[in-house]
Amino acid sequence: MKNFLDYLRRLKAGFNVRQLSLFFLATGFILSALLYIPFSLILNGDWKLNQQIDLFFIESLDLFDVSFPIGNVSIRFYSICILTGLLAGYSLVLYLSKRNRIASTTIDRMFVGMVIVGLAGARLFYVAVNWEQFVDVPIEIFTEITRGGLAVFGMIIACGLYLWSYCSRFKFNFFEFADVLIPGVLLGQIIGRFGNFFNYESYGGPTSAYWKMYVPQTANLYTDPTQSYFHPTFLYEIIPNFFLLIVLLYFYEKLTLRRSGIIFGLYAMGYGLIRFGTEFFRLDALKIPLPEIVELGPFTFEFLYVSQVSAIILFLIGVVTVFYRSKVIYSKKTMVEIKV
Questions:
Q1: Structure-derived torsion over alpha carbons of residues 255, 312, 21, 98, reported in degrees to the nearest 10
Q2: Which helix (H) or strand (E) segment is 293 a member of?
Q3: pLDDT of the residue at 73
């Protein structure tokens, strides 16, 4: 009985970060087991995957003697994945901020700004790289966002600049806040990436592997229309990102003890490597044509893959951050950093 009461007290006190990482790991395996059969049926094409939930139908809306066509009012699963990722990431950030003795009101103000700036940056980055897609109908920049078209690196750049500006304005330690935010950002990326699954996007070349993904003709980007099964590239990013999150949380308390910035640096290195690798598979990778074809031995390059270049830059930022911040001791009591 005494042991049980001690367990309840520890449970009430909450998980420490290492225990939370193990909880996430166990939850991930349980959900994978529960969803394995329906997920397999969808990937094999035996089950149809709906992209939205239809709520109701409004033929038109009359305002000031002007009729505006409406049609179906629906919620897209892509949007649900993005929103769920935001809420999950926010909850994790609040948990870590509490353990770091950062006021929740500070996180709330910062998080709201980062969500707005991050979504805008993700959309603008995608639009800038695919401007020819929107130049004739620029209104689609806003109307077609529920169908996809968000670039993660645009989000990372925008959020990084916003955080730097925010911390500079209020004299906060940028790296301390980055370490608190990064696990939440990574969790949001993992959940949000499932939006590609519902939208039939971010998949790779044709394959006959056991884990192949069925893609209907309406979403088929491959030159050969007879091909229906492709690499589920979004999974190639989700799975390693999940284990990266587990590692960062498992060693979180140790890596942030009297230091800040290491978590951010390891995320930058890890995600940079993961994204660089997955871009080799994607058919819809963001790319810019080179002015001239570049030949390096047996390899021929006709395009500059935007995400791979961004991934390399992010990886190098992570290397520099880990190298520099590992030599800095940070005291939260005195708010002083000492280079050792």
A1: 60
A2: strand 287-296
A3: 65
